Amino acid sequence: MSLLKRIGATIAAASLCVQGCAAQMVTQPYVDPVSGIVFNSTWVTGPGSDPESASVATYGFGMVLPPDAFIKDANEYIGLLRCAITNDTADASQGWCGLSHGVSGQMTQSLLLMAWPYNGSVYTSFRYTSGYNLPGVYTGNATLTQISSTINATQFELVYRCQGCFSWNQGGSAGSVSTTSKLFIMGRAAAKKGVHNPTCPDKVFFGFHDNGYGQYGAPLDNATHTSYPYWAAKATKTAATNCATLETPPPTTTATGTQPTDTSVPTTTAAAQCTPAPAKSYDYIVVGAGAAGIPIADKLSQAGKSVLLIEKGPPSSGRWNGTMKPAWLQGTNLTRFDVPGLCNEIWVDSTGIACTDTDQMAGCVLGGGTAVNAGLWWKPNPKDWDYNFPYGWKSSDLAGATKRVFDRIPGTWHPSMDGQLYRQEGFNVLQSGLNQSGWKQVIPNDSPNQKNRTFGHTTFMYSGGERGGPMATYLVTAYARKQFTLMTNTAVRRAIRVGGHVTGVELECLSSGYSGVVNVTANTGRVIFAAGTFGSAKLLLRSGIGPADQLQVIQSSADGSTFLPQNQWIDLPVGYNLMDHLNTDLIITHPDVVFYDFYAAWNTPPEGDKDAYLKNRTGILAQAAPNIGPMMWDEIKASDGIVRQLQWTSRVEGNDQVTPSKNAMTLSQYLGRGVVSRGRMTITNTLETQVFLHPYLHDDFDKEAVIQGIKNMQAALNVIPNLTWVLPPPGTTVENFVNNMIVSPSNRRANHWMGTAKLGYDDGRSGGSAVVDVNTKVYGTDNLFVVDASIFPGMPTGNPSGMIVIATEQASQRILNLSAPAAVGYGKQCGGKTWGGSYACEDPYVCTYVNISYSVCLSPDAT
Ligand SMILES: Cc1cc2nc3c(=O)[nH]c(=O)nc-3n(C[C@H](O)[C@H](O)[C@H](O)COP(=O)(O)OP(=O)(O)OC[C@H]3O[C@@H](n4cnc5c(N)ncnc54)[C@H](O)[C@@H]3O)c2cc1C
Ligand code: HEM
Description:
binds flavin-adenine dinucleotide, binds protoporphyrin IX containing FE
């Protein structure tokens, strides 16, 4: 049931994508000369895509389906996969390419097929990954048998039969696509570097797809064929494997920092070995050391409380003994996370950094999102509080918290230590048009309320030419206190809860950290989940708090045997209210725009830039990749009367799927405050979180605002001489452009996920929408809190980390001001569906469930 809903949502969106996708993919019929198979439907990367292989399309795919595939869902097809061979490396195996069978062509949580040529044969491997990490071997039932393969100097081609390929199941994590829908959204990926161990498909290891990737709509109308059974019978071959001598994957850069130039290797998976956690209790246990977890741990320890901060990931910044870095940073105290110009590497090599238990990109390292993000740092538009948040959380209430945060992390719009801005050609081009069109230039954090027809330089949380942010401020002061303890590489499984009272957390041994149980101080101790929008929601669910359908999923998972009994479940709308900025990209080119290759700077930054950065923290590497700015803001009042806030983030970077130009800029429109559309996050029975319903464009007036915003931007920039629009393509109306674009997280996300544990007065246990009250305390508990992006009721104007830290400052005060409910005595009420009092019983009594509305303190032997 849940699966069908997910597919339904995707297909509804996908049915709009067909023409838009055609702009990037050429569709053409093809008869395979070797097998004679007629592929009436093929999709080939189009002109402008992947320019470095311009003479040969980097990717081509064709599909034939069984004749009855539109009447009943087929689970097999005949495929044609054709990919360019790249001879630009010393690799004998000349690149790889692959495809995603997923519902929205996504890489995560879907069946992947990869192929590569070697010594006259084409080898294949089915792969699967739950997060944006190196995909492992698929363990389900897909089978590939070859019909024919050809390899020449420029490309390789495989015609194959793929059985069990439209539904997949990786250890219980299942998905499928439906041929009766007559439309697929496919994903493609290609890499220039080859695989290691090419003749042993289960043991190959490989790097990022650096030769193009993306999604396209694949209408299946012509894909069935009556000759299917005849052609399928030709599938008899397999490539001869040889696993005799194997290369051992060296430890990854991310694990040790010793292989700085090779990003093509997976983390060696040693068996997890944890140390039992010290038998000590804490006033506060904070779970997750990200944008919220670090500041709140600091504030609570500053108040004299003993605080344990538990982070699942490894250290990131050099300041905290992080080690992941390219060669040119060896011998320095800097890691990839510290250098602003390397921040985009997260989109190239995310293995060992991205969370592995969610289908979206999230940083599972010390610092969380603030370690991997681009550092954009905004003093909030007061309307973001006033419109989205309830009484007690208005901008006037948050003024003190805002000041405290910006006193510690002021941010800067000129991060290079010489105060200069580098490679400003792109900024200058857009600025000229915006000025002429009457948009006003502002210093954004000096005028946070000026967000209508304004623009300015980007502001970052950077300091001293390095990343800075919470890890360089709040964590430093917290760490200096004896009552503060930090555990890294240590994952929390769940809160240990008796009725509405939490006694501690149970750890889960995933790598090398601690295991066992850690308690909070008896009666007065508290647990705070700060594990992010997906992480905190997952922890709540595993702690028996959430909608019944999700708790049933947990019950059927590996957690089942130790999961709380149903009469202990707290019914709250965890996972609903999922939000993200809808991202709609426009692309322009202008001859004056100059591209700086931040990607190449990972291995080989220009000497002058490297020296300037290493010696003085000056130059372009002190600025965020990929040269971000200008930022622009616009407000649109849609026909429903709601004003929607738009933020535009420009960057000097095109998209090789649509233009080969090196003078391109991408203008990303974020739909912010006022957005009505919401999605839902759910969990699988393999305990991975997923965007079950994306939060984009379910509301017609949201779409109206997006369209109007694009028209406004076109009007503002059309005055610039020699500016060319790539997206929307010339001759396409904005309406058609927007309507034809795929709507899926993979191509429309902004990575600003929020809202799964909404803050509010309307108690979710009684039909309301809130999971936490205005003190950030989880309804139905007296000492469990959530403080992070998940509590946001609505979307803010822009990148949210500044607001998350402010909300955290505010929450810390509210939590500290909240006196712990006294434990109650024998015979007193200690729980019930809408109970709001103390859930703790005096010693030796135990809170005992009587019925859904009533629990009572009784002697232990009475329970
Ligand atoms: C690639 C990317 C770029 C971004 N760019 C920007 C930007 O430029 N500016 C901006 O303002 N925002 C940006 N964002 C968004 C911003 O970083 C996030 O909104 C913010 O970090 C969320 O804060 P959080 O505290 O809710 O969660 P996070 O910062 O994600 O922190 C959660 C932490 O909890 C840990 N954790 C999770 N589960 C457990 C567990 N079970 N046990 C122990 N620890 C756990 C995680 O490892 C993580 O460290 C970006 C996000 C991404 C992914
Ligand atoms: C080392 C291995 C890999 C890594 C680290 C990796 C990482 C990533 C990342 C970070 C993205 C998101 C990029 C963005 O949004 O800008 C992505 C997208 C994608 N990847 Fe991979 N990938 C790997 C291997 C593969 C393989 C083997 C396939 C298919 C056979 C694949 C298919 C895709 C597709 C289709 C997309 C676009 C859709 C989406 O974002 O989900 N990837 N990959």
